[in-house]
Specification:
The longest helix is centred in the middle third of the chain and has 18 residues, at 257-274. The protein is an alpha/beta fold. The protein has two domains: 3-221, Rossmann fold (3-Layer(aba) Sandwich); 349-472, no CATH class. The protein is built from 22 helices and nine strands. The relative contact order is 0.10. Strands 2-5-8-1-9 form a five-stranded parallel sheet, sandwiched between helices. Strands 3-4 form a two-stranded antiparallel ribbon. A two-stranded antiparallel ribbon has the order 6-7. Helix 9 (214-229) packs across helix 11 (257-274).
Amino acid sequence: MSIKSFGRRTAKAATHQLSRLSRLGVFGFDPLEPLILAALVTEDPLLLIGPSGTGKTFLLNSLSEAMGLEHRHYNASLISFDDLVGFPYPDKDGAGVRFLQTPATVWGAKSVLIDEISRCKPEHQNRLFSLVCERRIQGVPLPDLIYRWAAMNPCSSDQGGADDYAGSEALDPALADRFALFIEAPDWSGLSEAERLLVAAPAGEGLVTKDGGALRRDVECWKSSFDAGVADCPDDVIRYVTTAVTALNSAGIRISPRRSRFMTRGLFAASVVTGQLSEGLCRLLLQSSLPQVCWGEKPPREAVAAAHRLAWDVVRDVAGSWLPAFLAEGALPRKLEILLDDCRSADQGTQAVAEFLAMSPPERAAAFAFAVYPAAASGKLPVGAEGVNDLGKRASPFLSASGLVSWAERLAEKDTDHPDLVRYAAALDGLTGGRAERAKQFFNGCLVRKCKVADPASLESEIQQCVEVLVRRGLA
């Protein structure tokens, strides 16, 4: 199914959503608007991350006002469990327990904002699991609850600027994975001059957000189209997400199966909101779906960009169906066989090599380049000059023996600068001839380059199998 059919059905609504957030008095979030509106459509949990004073809480509270929601706003750093559920008291017959409700308890709420979630006590974080993911509290369903939102400052392990959020701790990865999107709020430097003037103007302070119900009506329209199509989600959306998730996991950036479904739902909803599936929308969705930011990690930009390019090329069917299989394949010898058997042009081969080297852990990229570069340099692989050059850059520190201390000398000196030496030496036990020399050369390069190898014996075996593939085909 093509996205175009859904784009036509929602094009009228999409024309009214430009600068929607600005019309609510929320400024600076326009580039992220399609994802924020998509979260209103999917009703999946949303987390805003940014420095203090960037409007995270204001945005979410404004959405609840414009949507006419029964809203609860909790400060996670101060909240107690009684604040959520009320005070327990026994039934008159003593058969059960009820909760004494107050205007602040979660019962009856349609939207919940958990502010400062990264300052929440660990035991309260655990209690938020079911609220965020299952819309339950103490095992009791919350049938009225629709939206679960949260906001936090960058966690303490991700700080390097003037602000010191010492109390903002990394989220438990399991809790972070319950959120569908991670919207990074722009700071002052990310605002345009016009937005800075609007943010600084005091006229909107304390006003209740009202838009005459326009946002609620549009969300209902988009949601109708989303619900009608989500069971038969467009192929382009699914292909983009599955290819990108496979590429990220191959690069050591873990994306859970649950998150892949969040991403598919979010991308489909965003395409309904905007009326099209564009490259920019796909890139924005991918960048905003990485939970690592919640515990202070920044996945390598090159790997994320490579995953996006690959996935978008698959959607456009640029490189044919073999490229995703090449990048998704974990075993190096099988990856080489796919390149040899299915690549139809040097340009495709160059693209495949570039994507693989960009998204792979350093030791695996080095091992593949080390094994295949001699054949590539001799023109025996379907790879263009640029691809050969990329392989050469990765392989040359391992292929060149000049200036390296010999393996025997390292062992004799019990080199303490390289604690992995003994592990690498153990992987050589039983190897003879050219295979042993090749393995020594590779691991020597690993020591010099400080390239860590978790399982030396397994990686050496993959290098040997790659060489055997080339020998069998007369390419070595």
